[in-house]
Amino acid sequence: MRFRWEVAFYVAVFLLVLFMSINGYSKILTIGVGMGAALIAFIIHYFYPLALEKRMDRVESFLRSQKNTPELYIHYVLANRFEDESRMVMEQIMSKHKKEKAQAVYKAAYGVYRKDMNDVREAVPYIRFSDYRAYYETILLSEDEKSTQARECLKSIKKRWMRSALLAEIEIKAGRRETAIKHAREAVNASRGVHRYVLHKEYERILPEAIASVS
After folding, report:
1. pTM of the predicted structure, to 2 decimals
2. Please, which of 35, 64, 88, 127 could form a disulfide with 104 given CB 3.0 to 4.6 Å?
3. Which among 190, 138, 134 has a CA at the least distance from the CA of 164?
4. Could you give the CA distance from residue 23 to residue 17 in angstroms, rounded to a whole number?
């Protein structure tokens, strides 16, 4: 169904641009219409499921279709814990991105997935975005049972879903399940797109109560 819709959309755009060209519309207007249609297509088929979608089936469908984009597909294989495929996709990412700064966030995520904190620790200094760097620094502190320092570290993070997800992890380790569920719900409700999907799949395994009534 989605493929048919995409074909129909692009055919309609092509016919519209062709009509405008044949009927003497200005080139600037014709190009503008074409570019506007391309932007709409990008938002609908790429940006929306990536960053804004709340329905998990649609995000999953989007991620499954990204096998040729390992930087996106890695979210799907890690969220679903596909061991063999995750190694293969990570190899693709490492081969594609040679610089440590480009590899860092993927190495950190993969390290957390495999519970290899040494890999996370090595990657953290090279993570370019402050929120993500603080996110993994907080995970390291939590793994070292430094919950007080972890709570202080996460305060610098601007993204609400990250803060709530980290608080959920800290509360799980402290054995306060009800509080962990509260923060996990906050994290899912504050997230969209791929981040929401990853959190949702994780809580399906460890805190199913947190997603039982998520809006």
Report:
1. 0.84
2. 127
3. 190
4. 10
- Report whether 90 contacts 71 (CB < 8 A): no
CA atoms within 13 A on the CB side of 35: 6
d(CA 160, CA 72): 22
**Contact between 69 and 81 (Cβ < 8 Å):** no
Tokens of 150: 């972890």
Round to whole Å and give the CA distance between 132 and 140.
Answer: 13
Instruction: Quote the CA–CA distance of 99 and 168 in Å, as a whole number.
Output: 33
In tens, the pLDDT along 125-134 reads 999 999 999 9
From residue 138, give the alpha-carbon distance in Å to each of 118, 141, 153.
14, 5, 6
Residue 55, judged by CB atoms within 10 A of its CB (0-12, 13-18, 19+), counts as exposed
- Degrees, nearest 5: CA angle 212-162-137: 135
Contact indicator for 44, 186 with CB cutoff of 8 Å: no
Residues 6+ apart with CB under 8 A from 71: 93, 106
Q: Are 123 and 107 in contact (CB under 8 A)?
A: yes
Q: How far is CA 39 from CA 114, 158, 192, in A?
A: 38, 28, 20
